[in-house]
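Hey, I'm writing a tutorial for new members on how sequence and structure tokens pair up, and I'd like a real worked example in the thread rather than a made-up one. If someone can provide the structure for the chain below, I'll link this post from the tutorial.
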Amino acid sequence: MEKCIIIGAGAAGCFAALACAEKYPNAKIEILEKTQQPLAKVRISGGGRCNVTHACFDPEALCNHYPRGNKELLGPFHRFGPTDTIEWFKKRGVELKMERDGRMFPITDRSETIINCFLDEIKKRGIELKLGEKIDCIPDADAVILATGSSRQGYELAKEAGHTIVTPVPSLFSFNVPSSPLLHLSGVAAPDATVWLEGGSRKERGPVLITHWGFSGPPILKLSAWEARFLQEKEYRATCLIEWGEELPKRLRRAKPESRFQIEGKTTYKKEFVTCGGIELKEVNFKTMESRIRPGLFFAGEILNIDGVTGGFNFQNAWTTGWIAGNSV
């Protein structure tokens, strides 16, 4: 393998490039990025702290956090999972810490730590990072890795190669409930509530945060991921039911909250949007991340029809699929 081109300088693309460079130190490796800012989503993840992965070390348990892609990721997670991620960063001088809910961050609490680690490694390995690159077709190389996230450009390139694109819709968002009688309690949280949608198929439990537009918090975001298709079909208008739990803050208890609320839209969660949809998974060999349609074309990250709930799971998908693609070219 003499030349590998990676399209997309996000988490999956950069990780794939580094994995490729480590296995093929003499190969010419280029990362092409259409914007001027590599690793943009890494920068804003976790409120600027970068939620690198999750301390869920059993592959089968880990798969349960992916509404789409859970079956396909089982084998890949046995090969490169959170333990490997932690070790990978540790070898490069970046220590991770675990928080009580299992989320893992750099001990510096700064996403810049992760970005600098990648950029230093890219430079050290002699990988050429080209920014502001417009790509109209799949370039000529021994191998090409598409790691363009939810970019329309990546979907178009995959379609031109013969791939099916499962229609992308948003995932991981909070609920707009303008008719909620609790809007004046913005900032108050119910520590142990259970949430589900009328006509839906899933319940989630955890701290529900009241916002000035409706509801947020881990169970709301998880529910938005699992019910992403259902909510899109309902045009983000559905009935949300909440069992508030016993230990409520005084202000919320005095409000005597009802359990039924009318969702009338969505709000993206701190720009950390995730997309449900992408390349049809049956068209990808998950042992190598290579296209089953076009030899020499590989995929990594969110361009695939894979998405996880909040908590570091989407980055773990990027590291895992990126590592496999980079090692398989």
